[in-house]
Amino acid sequence: MRWKRPLIVIVVLLILVVIAGWVAMRDSGRARLPLSAQMGPTPDIVPPAPPLVTTVNVARVVGWKAGEMPTPAPGLKVNAFAAGLRHPRWILPLANGDVLVAEAEAPARADGHQSLKDRIARLVMRSAGSGAAPSANRITLLRDADGDGVAETRTVLLSGLNSPVGMAVVGDQLYVAEADKLTRFPFHVGDTKIEAPGVKVTDLPGGPLNHHWVKNVIASPDGAKLYVSVGSNSNVGENGMAAEQERAAIWEVDARTGQHRIFAYGLRNPNGMAWNPMTGDLWAVVNERDELGSDIVPDYLTSVGLGDFFGWPCFYWGGYSDKRAPDCDPQQAQYVRRPDYALGAHTAALGLSFSTGGKLGPRFAEGAFIGLHGSWNRRPKAGYQVVFVPFANGKPAGKPVPVLSDFLNARGQARGRPVQVAIDRTGALLVADDAGNHVWRVSAR
């Protein structure tokens, strides 16, 4: 029986090696900086530190239990404006108090093809509360007739759409940004159903591969132009630059003719867009690239001007080079526009709305509300909250202030995930929670 002792020693050593390897892999993806170091106009940009294995640290969605809700900032209160929705992605408050909600998931690939990486990504997203059921593909109208902050009625305004997200009302037209096209419908504020067929304004980059499928739209103040956000078709160009034609950009579309031009480009995945009420400039929040480590690259909030180039896929944060990107010209670095304000790496900034006054208190009178959907590629997790970036004289001025928190429970599971944020006609803040299937309403106490 003497042979058993060396065998036991070998087995123990092998177990220790496996444990050490697992710890090394786990720690190789862990953030070294506090998230606050990556927020503001001058974030710490550290060298890339890709982990041995891609960090996957998504919060599993468990939903809201009865009586649970997110925690508002001091001086604010929150209530459920609507519950039981189906992946509410985007919201648009109307002048009469009605609220439009786009309920949508990612569209299925037209060719049905799924690579191994696609399948893994699908499993990860399903755990994160997306893709568990086919897309609802509708816009729902919520009405709070008695003004108590809770929608008593809901009606399906439009159905049969293709993963609709962004919405804009201009005159008697409702514009809807679907996954592959911009469509307009005849609409008067107060209508509860649209029967007329839509008219395609312009095609948008779509399938069969449509990596960043979410499209948003807002109108210029005079309604003559529409601005449409179109995300990239990859993380960093790995699907080839032919697949990125007119993507990673904000389009400017003529509302009358449908003709378009690229307004700004090199924005990996822009989503939320809004007009700065102090300056009249267009601002956007942008999701940056993954798989360079938990500490970079920070997502950001920035003003956007005609012809601005923000660097994707070759550069990030004003000129840092990404060696993974194909066909890069180092000379282009001098033309890269640096973003105005970092929001932390992998926080997944999606929704954006500027404050419209002091209805939520003086500290929220000037600045931007941002929905941080939450990370999947960072350890520890980041985002999963709504924040407010204070402004002064039309520019960011200070660190983000939490407005609505505790979308994660004590075990790090997601009860919900905030997406779009919007100010209603009373000055309250509405928050679309796609994983929790709620629209929350934040108001002053």
Molecular structure report:
- With 445 residues, this protein is mainly beta.
- It has a single domain, classed as Neuraminidase, CATH 2.120.10.30.
- The chain is 8% helix and 34% strand.
- The protein is built from two helices and 29 strands.
- Strands 2, 22, 23, 24, 25 and 26 form a six-stranded antiparallel sheet that branches. Strands 1-21-18-17-16 form a five-stranded antiparallel sheet, with no helix packed on it.
- A hairpin with a 2-residue loop joins strand 24 (385-392) and strand 25 (395-396).
Provide a short characterization of the protein structure.
The protein is mainly beta and 445 residues long.
CATH topology: Neuraminidase
Assign an overall shape.
globular
Return the structural class: mainly beta
Q: Work out the radius of gyration.
A: 22 Å
Report mean pLDDT, rounded to a whole number: 92
- CATH level-1 class: Mainly Beta
DSSP strand tally: 29
Largest sheet: 6 strands, antiparallel
End-to-end CA span: 76 Å
Question: What is the domain tally?
Answer: 1
CATH architecture, please?
6 Propeller
Tally of contiguous helical segments: 2
Low-confidence stretches: 16-26
